[in-house]
């Protein structure tokens, strides 16, 4: 497959960069077979709108349904594998002195690919927390009750992900905002740039004079403002970017 040509000016800036921040969205997991957020749900869950299930109200109304929806998503994600785009971001982390990978994705694929400097802005679907205490729960007895109960207080367990209308984890957001304010190059990859405060991060970097690069097959509200717009799939463009910046050096 012919490799996608990367603008030489971008290659040059990336080769000499000390600080790089990357924001990823569901588009980066699409090529691993994990549906993007605004793509139609499939199968049993087709009749449910994620915005109807991923809320505290939905959980209060029907905790069993919400827990089972996330269990179904966990099963789909377990069958997925990180792709060459995820692995290219691991290489970038190894090459750049101060690198931050900020993800909106809850699927854990960046971690499975080997990324370490990872900020999970919207949580992680494989972690659970107590709905009453809002504190993580590592282990619980599986007595068949759905959802399971908190071993500390007996409250219901819920996925440790950010639901609509909920605040993002403060420490993760603070780290992400600091990275956006201090980076030389900001990549926005596979996100529709619709959901705040994550969507604000590339604009913060732009406002402070950073080089902003978007990788997406479709235009987004960020597209008219970026320094470089690489139109296409993350799984194709990221390996080409890494090869032309470091391997070919
Ligand atoms: P979306 O589903 O809103 O957007 C996915 C983006 O990925 C779109 O812009 C697609 O064009 C792009 N895309 C699709 N395939 C791609 C590929 N192979 N390579 C690169 N890009 C591709 O997903 P997000 O922007 O991540 O929040 O959604 C942001 C947040 O909205 C999610 O984290 C979730 C949802 O509400 C919470 O759950 C709190």
UniProtKB/TrEMBL annotation:
Keyword set includes DNA damage: no
Keyword Heme appears in the UniProt entry: no
Location, primary (coarse class): cytoplasm
Residues of the Deacetylase sirtuin-type domain: 1-249
Signal sequence range: none
Active site: 122 (proton acceptor)
E.C. code: 2.3.1.286
Compartments (UniProt record): Cytoplasm
Protein name (record): NAD-dependent protein deacylase
Gene source species: Candidatus Competibacter denitrificans Run_A_D11
Gene behind this protein: cobB
